[in-house]
Amino acid sequence: MLYRDLGPFRTTAIGHGEMPLTIENNRGHDVGIDTLHASLDAGCRHIDTAWAYYTPGEEEQTGEKLVREALATWKGPREEVTVATKIGLRRAWEGDKPVWPRDGKPEHLIAYGKQSAMALGVDTIDLLYMHRHDPEVPYGESIEALRQLLDEGVAQYAGVSNVTIEQLDIARAILGDRLVAVQNQYSPIHLDTQDTLDYCAKLGLAFVCWSPLGGYRHPYDESKFDPFRQVAAAHGVSYQQVVLAWELAKGDHMFVIPGAHRPETILDSLKASDLELTPDELAFLG
Ligand SMILES: NC(=O)c1ccc[n+]([C@@H]2O[C@H](COP(=O)([O-])OP(=O)(O)OC[C@H]3O[C@@H](n4cnc5c(N)ncnc54)[C@H](OP(=O)(O)O)[C@@H]3O)[C@@H](O)[C@H]2O)c1
C-alpha cells in the first residue's frame, strides 16, 4: 500500500470515500460495515466521511456513525487510521430530489463540529474540512469558526473543500500551518481544479481528489475514460485502477478517496496502489 504524508498524518494515498454507504441508494447498514472492514483489512488507513453523509430524513444512519461502528468492531489497529470529516452542508429533499443545502453560519459550524466528534466517538477529530462555501456567509467568517474548533481541541487539523485559489488563501491566512489539505473534485471528467492542484503542490499542501472516478452523477462523457481503458487492457487491470494511479502520479501531494457501494469495488480500487504507469503511458493519458 502506498503511504504519503497528509499533513502530519502518514497514511495511505488511497483513502476510502464513505459517502455511497450512507446517502441514498446505499445497500444498507451491514453492507456498509462489510465494505469499510474490507478496505481496512486490505490496508487502507484513511477514511473520508462528512457530517452530511446521510439520506435526507434518515439521520439515524449517518456516515460518521457508520465509520465509528466499523472502527469499533474492526479487529485491526484503530490508531493507525486517519479519519477525516467535513462540516458546512446539510441534506434535504427538494420534491423527490435529494439536495445539499449549504450552512456556513459560524455558530452552526461550531455545533456541527462538536456533533461530528460525538458521532465519530472521538475527543478530537483528526482532520476537519469546511465542506463548501456558503455564499450567504463571508468565507473568512466560516473559517474563523473552523479555527475556533481547532483552538478548542474539537479537531486537530483543518482542510478546505470545493475551494478556489482565492478561498484557499483566505483559509491559509486564518488557519496557518494547521491547514493541511484541500479536497476538490478532480478526475478525467473534471479537470477544472488543476489550478488548485498545482497551487497545493507549490504550497506543500495535500490535494485530495473527490469523486476521483467521476462520481455517481451520471450521465457524463464516458469517452473521457477511453484512453484509461486502453492502458488498463495492456496491464490487465480495471480502468478505474488506471485512473487512480494516474491521479496519484500527478505529485507526491496527491491523494484519492474512491467511493464504493460494496467490498468488491473498493478492493479493486485499492490495488491501484501497486500499479505503476510508465512515463509513456502517463504522457499518453495527459
Ligand atoms: N468534498 C466534497 O464535496 C465531496 C463530494 C462528493 C464526494 N466526496 C468524497 O469523494 C468520495 C468518492 O466520490 P464518489 O463516491 O462520488 O465517486 P467515485 O469514487 O468517483 O465513484 C464511485 C463509484 O465508482 C464505482 N467504483 C469505485 N471503484 C471501482 C472499481 N475499482 N471498479 C469499478 N467501479 C468502481 C463505485 O461502484 P459501486 O457502486 O459498484 O461500488 C461507485 O459507484 C466520496 O465517497 C466522498 O467521500 C466529497
From TrEMBL:
Residues 31-283 form the NADP-dependent oxidoreductase domain. GO terms for cellular component: cytoplasm. Pfam families: Aldo_ket_red. GO terms for molecular function: oxidoreductase activity. The keyword rRNA processing does not apply. Keywords: Oxidoreductase. The keyword Oxidoreductase applies. PANTHER family: AFLATOXIN B1 ALDEHYDE REDUCTASE, ALDO-KETO REDUCTASE YAKC [NADP(+)]. This is Aldo/keto reductase. It comes from Bifidobacterium samirii. The lineage of its organism: Bacteria, Bacillati, Actinomycetota, Actinomycetes, Bifidobacteriales.
